[in-house]
Amino acid sequence: MSYTIKNVAIAGAGGNLGKIVTPTFVSSGKFNVRVLTRQGSSTAGLPEGVEVVEVDYSSPESLQFALAGQDAVISLITTPAAMTQLSLIDAAIAAGVRRFIPSEFGSNLANPKTRANPVFKHKVATEDYLIEKAQSTTLTYTFFYNNAFLDWALRANFIVDFASPRPQVLDSGDTPFSATTMQSVADGLVGVLLHPAETANRAVYVHDLVTSQNRLLALAREARPDRHWEPESVALDDLVAVAEKRMAQGIFDFETIGPFLKRAIADPECGGVFTGKTDNELLGLKGKTDEFVLELLKDHLK
Ligand SMILES: NC(=O)c1ccc[n+]([C@@H]2O[C@H](COP(=O)([O-])OP(=O)(O)OC[C@H]3O[C@@H](n4cnc5c(N)ncnc54)[C@H](OP(=O)(O)O)[C@@H]3O)[C@@H](O)[C@H]2O)c1
């Protein structure tokens, strides 16, 4: 059955990704946007005139009220609160919402090795819940995979630590991986909701380009010829082994989680290269070139 999506509820709109997705939806002029936010959260920075509804994620009535009349929910909820999405999904079904996009926006969870990665346990549980519900209700889902956030990863010195003269590279440093700016994620989400039939009950894959740590280092040297980086090779398996020990000790900080994320992004067996299978064309994404990355690096390294 064909349907159009007009009313879009965005949960987690004030976060890192939400700050880009929300204005993109508003300025597209194609949707009515309603933001769901917890009581006491700041709404500063949300686009002017956007409808804001306070919700209590522990109250089904509150969530159902907030989702009344909505055609789609985009969840941009922070990863530690991922399981909150189950009550949001229940409320979406009760309110007659047609499409739910859970908070994923990263690794290829269709890859068995990535699906078993412990840091994605709650994202996988959310996917499984949606798959089950889509079989018995009118709710549909789209899973959005974009591998690494290019701009976020550069800013956080996550993929290459440009703040260090001896940044780590994983194994040879040449392993290719897909990367996507948060703006392209936002544009791709608009594309998903403009193509509800083509994106129903499946994962979409997008990327701006395929790069590698060594390629990023080469571009960084071009951006800042006055600076010097001497990369240090580390075995990804060794990094993950240390992280596994920390996890077994109950330590769940970023030092533990980071190597698991790096595995999902850049281990050749984890499905992090999307060449040949992207939905870029359907969703209206044109991809980016190294020149674009060079400009990002010039900005980051100034
Ligand atoms: N691929 C990548 O490289 C990459 C990098 C970073 C993030 N991501 C993914 O992008 C998605 C969004 O991440 P983000 O960094 O934008 O998130 P974030 O900034 O940490 O948080 C987003 C929003 O979550 C809401 N939130 C916080 N605690 C909550 C709770 N206990 N219950 C319900 N809502 C809560 C808040 O909204 P309110 O206060 O308004 O309720 C917050 O603004 C995640 O799935 C994350 O894994 C991917």
Automatic annotation (TrEMBL):
Gene3D superfamilies: NAD(P)-binding Rossmann-like Domain. It comes from the Eukaryota. Keywords: NADP, Oxidoreductase. Residues 6-152 form the NmrA-like domain. It holds the Pfam family NmrA. This is NmrA-like domain-containing protein.
